[in-house]
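Quick log. Single chain, no ligands specified.
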Amino acid sequence: MNSSVSRVSQEPAELANKYQAVNADEIDLRELFGVIWKGKLLIISVTIFFAVCSVIFAIMQPNIYRSEALLAPAAEEQGGGGLAALAGQFGGLASMAGINLGGGGSDKTQLAIEVMKSRQFASDFIQRHDLLSDLMAAEKWHIGDNSITYDDDMYEASTGKWIRDVNAPFKPEPSMQEAFKEFKKVVSVNSSKDTGMVTVAVEHLAPAVAKQWVEWLVLDINTVMKERDVAEAKRSTAFLRSQIQQTNVADIRSILYKLVEEQAKTIMFAEVRDEYVFKTIDPAIVPEEKAKPKRALICALGTVLGGMLAVMFVLIRHFIRKE
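-> predicted structure:
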């Protein structure tokens, strides 16, 4: 009997101890608010410091302007291109002659987009139009005289000499590999899956430069694709003529003559048309409003980040001292 009474009397004591242990491990919200209130001066000071720094950082960032052009694929109007035009009717006989009949205009449009994103096209584009200084060393645009100030530590505008201090294997003048990395950041080429339209956009601190680059990009890709097709058509014509001389089969000779005619049409089409792959629907303009930076967002995020870090520091310091 006595043992039963003692056991019953011990159970409330054990429950009380467990309850106190659980409460000790739980976080008291009143304690948290009290700690934050005690450290309010530090929190306010750190938040103000981060806010001021974010404002200074946002003000120091140059305005970036975005110019873009809307393009429509023009390759489909060629009727599928030279060799593809006879694919349905003479595919089998053409294969006997060793001729590969190619694809249509949509493939050519996608190829043109990938060419514009390639390292080779970017390198040729930069060198052809002498864009290296505007791409790599431009620091500020002056709206008054529409001029650009360059980074004095990288480039001497008066002499056109690169003076940046870099370690080997890099040289004072940026390589095309370095230029391509920057090129990808400021140039974008996107195709809409719904409409098939292509948007070419350039971001730069000088709005006139952004517009000019877009126009050059559209002009150059049309020229490059035109030259590719003309060169391929001439090679195909030479091959077809050699095959005509080597065969006496009337049906095959007839097919080969038709293919030569298609190559002549391809060359003629390329020579008489400037907008060979892309037709400009909405041309690029000089933007009047900046695209970035979002200064208000930068200031807001900087202030919030400062406040969060300050609160975390105050709480961590309190619990470290408490232990």
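Residues 77-85, 92-100 have pLDDT under 50 and may be disordered.
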